[in-house]
Amino acid sequence: MAASLSASPSPLTNMVPVPFIILYLKRFASFLAGKNKAAAHFLNLLFVRAKEKAGPVEEFQWLGLMLFVAVPFPGTGAWTGAIIASILDMPFWSALSANFFGVVLAGLLVNLLVNLGLKYAIVSGIVLFFISTFMWTILRNLKKSFHS
């Protein structure tokens, strides 16, 4: 009987580049930008785009980053989370742990969706989309009520 291979990497495999991105992205980008104007322009666009996505993360820090990474949609994984953490100068261990717990939660969600079957996975995906859309509104309202 042949061994079954997983279609997605394990959370630990997904986390391998995260510490390096958090620690060295800005240094590497500065080095590249100093060597090439086209690279500087590209990196500037990349950082501006990441900063646009970083609004909720900037507002809620650890919880925001963990939830951002946990949402199983394209562009919301650990690597993007690490880029955002680096750009926002989040503390290393805070950024690393938020990424890790987000990846684990995303893995659990995807596993659940896969085991539900196609019809229920589609329905669950739509529900997850609406939950993630309103999640930030709910968190903002909770934050405002705590500060009032």
Question: What share of the residues lie within helices?
Answer: over 70%
Q: Give the N-to-C terminal Cα separation.
A: 62 Å
Give the radius of gyration: 17 Å
Order of helices and strands: HHHHHHH
In the predicted model, the low-confidence regions spanning at least 5 consecutive residues are 1-6
The total count of helices amounts to 7
Q: How many β-strands, per DSSP? A: 0
Which percent range describes the beta-strand content?
under 5%
Descriptive tags:
single chain; 148 residues; mainly alpha; globular
Briefly, what is this?
Keywords: Membrane, Transmembrane, Transmembrane helix. The protein is built from 7 helices and no strands. It has 148 residues and is an all-alpha fold.
